[in-house]
Each structure stands twice: as C-alpha cells, then as structure tokens.
Design goal:
The protein has about 210 residues and is mostly beta strands. About 0% of the residues lie in helices and about 70% in strands. It contains no helices and 16 strands. The protein has strands at about 1-10, 15-25, 25-35, 50-55, 55-60, 65-80, 80-90, 95-105, 110-115, 120-130, 135-140, 145-155, 160-165, 170-180, 185-195, 200-210. Strands 1-2-3-4-5-6-7-8-9-10-11-12-13-14-15-16 form a 16-stranded antiparallel beta barrel. A hairpin with a 4-residue loop joins strand 7 and strand 8 (about 95-105). The chain is globular.
C-alpha cells in the first residue's frame, strides 16, 4: 500500500489544508481537512471524505455540509484519436458539468468544459513545443464571457517547471513554480490583480509526500 500526504497554505487567507490519501489496490481512500477542523478542538468543520478509482470515478462527501459530489471518467477511441470525458455533479449546489478532451497526438490536445444550467463553456487548446515538449502553451476561450485566458509552462530537467497564467477578464496574473521528485513535490505560486493600484501578491505553498506502508 502507498500513502500520500499533501499540505497547502494560503498566506493571504491564513488557511491551511491537509490531505491524506491511502492507495489500496485500484482504489484510493482520501481525507481532507483544514485548520478549522482542529482550531477549537476536533470537529467536522472542513472535513471531506473521498473514494477514488483513478480514471474511473471520484466520490466526495463533505461531512459538515452533508453534500455529495461525484465524478465519472471514461476514455474511448474515435477515428484513432483518444477522447476523454468527465461528468461532475454536486448535489447541494445542483451543479453539473461535462469535461471532454480530444488528443490528436502527444503534442496537441483540445478540451472543453460545459456547465449545465449556467451555460458557461470554455474551450482550451494544449500545445507542447519541441521534441522534448518542455514548452507548453494553453490558450483558453470563454464562450459565455467572450474572453481569452492564457497559460505558458516551461519545464526543466530535474522536475522543475515554471508556469505563468493571465485572465483577461479579471486581469489576474499568476506565477507558479513546481518541483517534482519520486517521493515528494512542492509548489509555490503567487497571483497579482493588475487592475488594482496596490498590487499585493496572493501567495500559496503546497507540498506532497509519498510513502510506502
């Protein structure tokens, strides 16, 4: 069996989140909680229980809200191309979304997200440049807002990567540094709202550790 522990801290909100996942065969059992779970003694605040089979389904249960969220994933071949579909439904919020992606080759992919009810729809193109595909460009078009978002990722040897994102509607600029290794990884990110006169960054740090049980 394998276990994964993930910790996350958002500086501007002073919120800490931790996730413990245990891999048991094809399934994964996961528990997520925040600092509010233990702030005034053990409680159910911020507690989420999950059961997941990678590539098949995810079932989340928010304990304090008594809310269920589930995802179903499937893949199939169409004209020798791989199509991936994900169906997501949150019961309490009555929110349903469908994600689909079409993989043309290892360097080109098109994906779409559609939210039922609201009619929000986003179409994203994923392109990896070069023989080693270390430079990734992701333009995204928001149909409902008639606006574009952009992401650019540069991968380096040793597992490091830098990512920059920009949302044209909110004018949010994001910068992210990732480092992945066999047993652990961490991510540090900062976001700026260029529309604000005083541009204080929102900082977030996240780290993941993998263990053999």
């Amino acid at each position: 069996m394998k276990a994964t522990v993930k910790g996350r801290y958002e500086v501007d909100k002073s919120v800490a989140t931790a996730t413990l996942a245990v891999h048991a065969g094809d399934a994964r059992l996961k528990t997520s909680f925040t600092d509010a779970t233990f702030a005034g003694g053990p409680s159910l605040e911020g507690l989420v229980l999950s059961v997941e089979k990678p590539g098949a389904f995810i079932l989340d249960y928010n304990v304090p809200n008594k809310d269920v969220r589930f995802q179903f994933m499937n893949s199939f071949k169409a004209v020798d191309k791989t199509v991936n579909l994900t169906y997501t439904h949150a019961r309490a919020a009555n929110r349903t979304a469908l994600d689909g992606s079409l993989v043309f080759d290892p360097a080109n992919k098109v994906s779409m997200n559609y939210a039922f009810g609201s009619g929000n729809c986003k179409v994203k193109y994923w392109y990896a440049h070069g023989e080693l595909r270390r430079l990734v460009l992701e333009p995204c078009y928001d149909v409902s807002k008639n606006a574009w978002d952009f992401a650019l990722t540069r991968k380096f040897e040793g597992g490091d990567s830098l990512k920059a994102t920009y949302q044209t509607t909110t004018k949010n600029l994001g910068l992210e540094w990732n480092r992945d290794s066999k047993d652990s990884s961490f991510k540090i990110s900062a976001s700026f709202n260029l529309a604000e006169q005083q541009k204080y960054p929102k900082l977030m740090a996240e780290s993941t550790w993998n263990y053999e049980i």
